[in-house]
Automatic annotation (TrEMBL):
UniProt topology in membrane: Multi-pass membrane protein
Domain ABC transmembrane type-1: 17-230
Residue ranges annotated for the ABC transporter domain, each copy included: 338-573
Transmembrane regions listed in the UniProt entry: 13-39, 59-85, 159-180, 250-269, 281-300
PROSITE patterns listed in its UniProt record: ABC_TM1F (PS50929), ABC_TRANSPORTER_2 (PS50893)
Assigned protein family: Belongs to the ABC transporter superfamily. Siderophore-Fe(3+) uptake transporter (SIUT) (TC 3.A.1.21) family.
Keywords: ATP-binding, Cell membrane, Membrane, Nucleotide-binding, Transmembrane, Transmembrane helix, Transport
Protein name (record): ABC transporter ATP-binding protein
Lineage: Bacteria, Bacillati, Actinomycetota, Coriobacteriia, Coriobacteriales
A single GO cellular-component term on record: plasma membrane
Organism listed in the record: Senegalimassilia faecalis
Subcellular location: Cell inner membrane
Amino acid sequence: MARLLDFAGKRKAFTYLGCALSGISQLLSFGPFVCIWFVARDLIEVAPNWQNATNIATYGWAAVALAAASIIVYFCALMCTHLAAFRTATNMRKATTEHLMRLPLGFFDTHATGELRRIIDGCAAQTETLLAHMLPDCAGSVVMVVGMLVMLFAFDWRLGVSCLVAVVISIACLMSMMSGKGMEFMKQYMGALTSMNKTGTEYVRGIPVVKVFQQTVYSFKAFHDSITEYAAMAQNYAVNFCRPPQVTQLTVLNGLVIFLVPTAILLAPGEGDFARFLTNFAFYAIFSAIIPTAMTKLMFMSEAAQMAGDAMSEVGKLLDTPALPVPATPRRTNGTDIAFDNVSFTYEGAAAPALDGVTFAAPAASTVALVGPSGSGKSTAASLVPRFWDVSAGSVRIGGTDVRDMDPADLMGQVAFVFQTNQLFAQSLADNVRAARPDATDDEVLAALSAAQCDDIVAKLPQGINTQLGTGGAYLSGGEVQRVALARAILKDAPIVVLDEATAFADPENEALIQRALAHLAAGRTVLMIAHRLSTVVGADNIVVLDGGHVAEQGTHAQLVAAGGLYARMWGDYEQAVSWKIASDATKTGSAAPGAAAAKGGDAR
């Protein structure tokens, strides 16, 4: 709770003030019951001469005034706690978002967006409910319980004890549901919600595939299993674990007369002042109605506290995730060359290293290609340059400076990225390109778009570069999105470019345009490219062939083909693939059937 309230900042005091006001409100709410006792006393004392009870109206107005005061004070309490809760939720979202910005970019490869969204937004919403409503209600409930105990013994302790039996049984039932097993159930509940968030996000993204193949949610096994697991867990918790204590609690709370009436019957014959005894009995019969309310508030409070505790645990795990280390005295680079010196890297939890003893260099303004079979470590090696991850051993240097000794902001300013899949925001085309350099003018944005071969995209959009993209606006094809991503990289004008085969999924027309844009982007820059299509690396200054996390060989295209190693075999497979033809069964000579298309662009596997 202390860590949660720290997020409230200066408004933490509002939380304490709100809880205090809620307690005062509960004390005021006892006033009408006391007034009822006075009314009952006066009426019984003068019965049947009711006209002699002259203070009834006074007690009635006092009860109304106390009830109104209780409501007003409670409203002020909620205003205070809401102010603190809103600030807490806002600061929590800011803190988690800002911390995410300081984490290594590789962190986002291992954590689903649905999971992070639940932590940033869902957990903050849960704590907001706790602070705004449940916490003041808890303070009021504590005061209510204490005041109730005082009231129970204020008039007739024997009748009070009979009412207290139900309270003791109710609290015992609540404690059983809040036991270690109950907390474990709550952790499973929150874990099931996280799982559904993760798999639900994946399912929504995969709906086009599901619909094309006429499948249902049952075919998306991960999502279906998470729903089934959540349903089974919730049913087990509600039916098998909570039902017995809840049934017992509700029975005793709503059947207080089973304790009060027998006690009154046993005590009545020995009472000397029967009128006072009858007055006390009437008071306890009416006052016992607030006992279920108090216990219900405590029950909901316990559930909210468990959920908020789990939410804070998830937020705490995220905030405790080590940020990307920033050197105390950052060093600047002395050039734009890249050097891998005996680099090794192992993913967390992996048994074998993804890279082991990798050494190669990319001189300034040169193009170096990384090729190799799937899983050979190409993407891992490229991701170490911008510090998506930090090396386990060895070093990655830019201009002679270890990237770990550079300020992360300076490092990001040195490197531009173009990947196979790129994200456009639901903003204008200009704002999407300007993400690379927010202070760029419209003319600079247009120049970058033109260099990225996007003139046709700008021409077809109704408001040009000011056209909204995404929901409620225009949509671009995959190849067009790739060209816009290239425009970003061109506008950034970074001296080092990391390419993850930007043409892998482009159609022939877009591929030609992307190749021209890449040529403009690479001019005069150090380029490290991950190549799947070998035709794109023939002109590279150096080709590094990775296999199983090791450098199998490196050299120019001609040198590697002449060496007859892994690259030569991959090149032979590639040449064979591009010569494949699609032919009908009737064609026996191996020539393509009329209208058949040549299978171009085989991937290097």
